[in-house]
Amino acid sequence: MEDAIKQIGERLKGLREVLDIPAQEVADLCDITLEAYLKAESGESELSISSLQKISKKYGIALDVLLFGEEPHMSSYFLTRKGQGLSVERRKAYKYQSLASGFRGRTADPFIVMVEPKPDDVQLDKNSHQGQEFHLVIEGSLEETIGKKVLVLNEGDSIYFDASQPHCMRALGGKAVKFLAVIL
Q1: Which residue has the higher pLDDT, 165 or 76?
Q2: How far apart are CA 98 and CA 181, in angstroms?
Q3: Cα–Cα dist 171/152, whole Å
């Protein structure tokens, strides 16, 4: 996990240096302090998927390049076999598996996400970004907070929402939850 976070930070720094972008500009885009952004670049902390997506869209680089260091090559279709999508374990509690990492120019980012349980007293970080999201619970129960609304989704339940609303999630029942997330 720490290696993945460090590699993402190195790619962010490389992108910024190649495009001659001030670190403050990227920090402002992500709505974080310069110090927090520089910690992400150095691998001491991490950025949310929504922040990485903002960077991806603003500077015209595929989200996969930031997450996995690989440029997509396919333009007519991309097949992902069960369990074979590129994975990155970014936070201790989240693991993302890309389902379309090789498709060039896509307009949505589909992932299988695994969320490990956390104690109820742990404060969750909300994030927000442009666009919309769709979540479909495959296994387990998911507490989804959107704005001030707290919803519980069980296996087979889905939600589609405005991702500019602050949102976060928590696995319930002391078990990991697996869901499909599509970020549009």
Answers
A1: 165
A2: 10
A3: 10
